[in-house]
Design goal:
The chain has 13 helices and 6 strands. By secondary structure, it is α+β, with helices and mostly antiparallel strands. Helix 9 packs antiparallel against helix 11.
Length: 359
Amino acid sequence: MLLQGNQRPRSSADLPPLSGPGRGMFRLKDTATMLILTDNRNETEIVVSIESLTQAAIIFVMAASIIILNVLVVMTILNYKGPSEVINCYLLSLAIADLLCGVFVIPLSIYPAVVRDWIYGDVLCRMVGYLEVTLWAVVVYTFMWISVDRYLAVRKPLRYETLQTKTRCQCWMAFTWISAAMLCSPPLLGFTKPVFDKDAFVCMLDWGSMAAYSVTLSILVLGPSLITIVYTYTYIFNMLRKIRSGFPFHDKEYATALSENLSNPSHMMSFSLIVAFWLSWTPYIGVKFYEYFTGLRLQIQYLHFGIIWIGFMNCFWKSMLLIMLSPQFRLALRIFFMTICCKYKGRLQAELIGMEADD
């Protein structure tokens, strides 16, 4: 293939210039599978293939979809004035993290996908890598708090509203964001150079050059999160099995409250969000572990592009799953759309919130 994405001396077979005289002009050469843009100021050419344009288009569509959906989720949750569960605080945190990824991380890969190179400098590359791992840690920690919230709803159904107040959940989320930002900050000090993945067009931190820190961070982020998620949802599904099998509970009030809490769709919705997240990132984690322990980089076309962007797609799927699996969110979404179009927003919200029981 003809030096895709690299700059090379200008060819003598250029077509007429695309821009007028007196400015840095681009000349265009067309082939069956690529375009060649020539910059007269630098005497260089940039090869743009159909493949690179397609990959850039995929990244652009992903960025636009993630931004639109997560803006919708954030505005819907903030707009809803009716009675809501504290889990909405955690869902808002997830949506903000995905929105930041869609605004500050993914769009910066569009142009590099076209030219096959990172053109924004090492400082921005380092910042992008830091933001990626920080947002990833925020999402993992948030899933841990969601699992704790669902566990308390089942374990302490009569005291749940006292234990899980909105103020307490907001404090946990603030603590999560601050902790993640601090834990992931050492690479910003410049101990290692960022790495641009030329197959996936994403800047990442070079974790291999700081193995001790990488292992420590993994233990601090993944250790408590995975243990908590596995334990809490094991307990939740075990209690769900007991309720469905008619297990006799001595405390009738507890059994009634437990049955009501387990019928809440938020349990399956939150579990689906967690499963979708790990399914999205499992291919990337598996390939990276294989390459690290074997010392070989898999040379399969589009493999690295696919596994990384499948991982980023979880920013899209979380919003879609929330819409599909949460009746309360669908009600809030309907209210949001109708309040945009309706003049009497206060009255409309009061009327639609009354419809919640019918849903």
